[in-house]
Amino acid sequence: MKKSILASLLLAGLLCFSAAPAQAQDEIETNPAYSQQQAPVKSGGDAVFVQVLFGSGFLGFFLWMALFGCFGFFLYLAIDCGILVRADKIMPAGLVANVENAMKEGDVVKALEFCKNEPTPMANILSAGFTHVEEGFDIIQEAISAAADLEIERIMQRLAWLSVAANIAPSLGLLGTVQGMIAAFANLGAGGTPDQGALAVNISQALWTTAGGLITSIPAVLCFYFYRGKANRIILKMEATTMELIKDLRNVEVVAE
Question: Among the residues of the chain, which ranges form H helices?
């Protein structure tokens, strides 16, 4: 009799123990507070970035638009400089050969026509010298020097915009970082329990904008120094070629009227 009572008690205990986890799981699933606070949130990187982009307020969204615009401006300048800062665009080999042959023949008018038919930086420089051929070699040199300074400045102004993009991008990223941290501390300083979701968006805003600024700034700096060095080499070669082409004008006699 005692053995049967003991067996019944053991069986009831096992049934209660096995039913407890299932009951606890039901309470977890039906308790919204628990599910909101403890359940892990699964989200991809793209979803987080979209949430940061549209959840960082008006100033944050404006900063992101400025960063996207700065990156697009950098891409445009990089492609533009890649097309224009080339030897065949600044001093075409065909122009140099035609002017050289004309100068060997002593036909300055023909050389000037070649320059006018193919307007390039070097053609503009040579044209400035050939138009003053009757005024003496010193005047020719001064005209060529002034025209060369103007063409070099035009080339360097294009490159200067790359430097502008490289300097603005990290500043925009830093401003976004400051804006995100200000919002995060404002959330922490507010009364009551801080909104963890809003706090995560604020911190993400600070980090993402910093990364965005650096992603634009680093390649912009590299492109600026690369194209500047390339432009300087082309300009030095252009100046040497120009002086070689006009050396025969030293023998031009100026007729006094």
Answer: 2-30, 32-38, 45-55, 57-84, 87-90, 93-104, 108-117, 121-130, 137-189, 196-245
Which residue in 170, 3, 146, 156 sits closest to 70, CA to CA? 170
Residue 158, number of CB atoms within 10 A of its CB: 15
Residue 27 has pLDDT above 60, yes or no: no
Domain limits, the chain: 47-251
Could you tell me if 67 and 173 are in contact, meaning their C-beta atoms sit under 8 angstroms apart? yes
Burial label for 174, CB within 10 Å (0-12, 13-18, 19+), is: middle
Query: Which residue has 């979803």 as its token pair?
Result: 47
Report the SS3 class of residue 136: coil
Q: What is the DSSP string of 20-84?
A: HHHHHHHHHHH-HHHHHHHSPPP--HHHHHHHHHHHSHHHHHHHHHHHHHHHHHHHHHHHHHHHH
**Per residue in 192-244, pLDDT tens?**
676 777 777 778 888 888 888 999 999 999 999 999 999 999 988 888 888 88
Rounded Cα–Cα distance for residues 166 and 215 (Å): 10
Number of neighbours of residue 149 by Cβ within 10 angstroms:
11
Of 98, 143, 103, the C-alpha closest to 246 is: 103
- For the ranges 49-63, 81-95, 96-110, 171-185, the one whose mean pLDDT is highest: 81-95
Rounded Cα distance between 89 and 67, Å, is 32
Q: Cα(40)–Cα(189) distance, rounded to whole angstroms?
A: 25
Task: Return the amino acid letter for 104.
Answer: K
